[in-house]
Specification:
By secondary structure, the protein is of the alpha/beta class. It has 2 domains: about 40-250, L-asparaginase, N-terminal domain (Rossmann fold, 3-Layer(aba) Sandwich), CATH 3.40.50; about 255-365, Rossmann fold (3-Layer(aba) Sandwich), CATH 3.40.50.40. Helices cover about 25% and strands about 25% of the residues. It is built from 9 helices and 20 strands. The strands form 6 sheets. Strands 6-3-7-9-10-11-14-15 form an 8-stranded mixed sheet, sandwiched between helices. The chain is globular. It starts with a strand and ends in a 16-residue tail after the last helix. Aspartic acid (ASP) binds near residues 95, 128 and 129. Aspartic acid binds near residues 95, 96, 127 and 128.
Length: about 375
Amino acid sequence: MAVVKLDSGYNIGVTPSLCKFIEHPKIEPTKRLEVTQDKKLSELSIISTGGTIASRIDYRTGSVTSQFDASDILIAIPELAKVAQYHTKSLYTILSENMTPKIWQDLAKAVYEEIKRGVTGVIVTHGTDTMAYSAAALSFMIDTPVPIVFVGSQRSADRPSSDNTMNAVCAASVAKSDLGEVVVVMHATTNDDFCAIHRGTRVRKMHTSRRDAFQSIGMPPLGTVSYPSREVKLENFAVQRGIHKLALHEKLEQRCGMVQFYPGMSPDVLKGYEGYKGLVIAGTGLGHVSTTLIPGVHNLIESGTMVVMTSQCMHGRVCDRVYDTGRDLLTAGVIEGNDMLAEVALVKLMWVLGNEPNPMKARELMQTDLKGECMRRSAHGL
Ligand code: ASP
């Protein structure tokens, strides 16, 4: 299949036998463009990790590949130069399905170093698929006095409907704002009118392809950024700049897993987690698995695996005291995951087990709100 780019910006696939190929005149490599930075503006860091925001179509395969580094992003989005001056660092050029806890640690160290250097805020460009995991991981790994802003795009730069410019410009505006926590900034609607600011521990990608795919779960967004005016509005529950002192706690226990319960699930599935230090179960409703799985859960806990129960429901909190299956899980030693999203509970479990060797204290930490991930009361009836 040959891919032909139309003037409209869209691509079509054509069977090569129907095409007439003409030799293209030799193209001289273009000189690399340099971006003029305004030294009077505040300094932000851009740390790039890859994803669609750093991608274009590869005409060899017709698929999207992650090719830009952080300084290419500045060239591709000249509007960024109106917001701030930038120090760029290219950490990875990967699609975010290839992220690992080890990369979260590298990223946390790189972000920490930039903040230590005194930048006003840090922007992390990232693939959207696992951006919420990385944002949660950095929320636990770094106490930050300045904004750490994750941003991505759902459509690559060479598509007419790309969301890369608006998302990046809004992210830079948030990185200069009065905020002092880890957030995700992405399109709030399908129009190019404003972005929402989501807390790093309470956000999920809720749609595979829409530009407004990201939503805050269990709480409203921390604020908005209008476009093109770049006006940032923060809610009073957003953590303010300067509240936390900079600190890095990058240790993670990587032998942790997550499993989603389904009707008829075999207890053998749990055997695969023998030897793991932690396991998050996304249970049904208030936090259940079938009676047939409870002995397996008990065995895991007896042999030293910390098991945390979360819910497949998007809203509400786990309560294992209502039904007998829940009470049996509590007797087996399961920890109720409150209203944490399952993936956030997993990242938190890695962090808690990596930093707290005392099992009783680790258990307590899993039930304590550390970075807004686990709220005492669900906000606004959510
Ligand atoms: N698969 C891509 C990634 O997460 C999608 C994206 O960037 O939007 O890296």
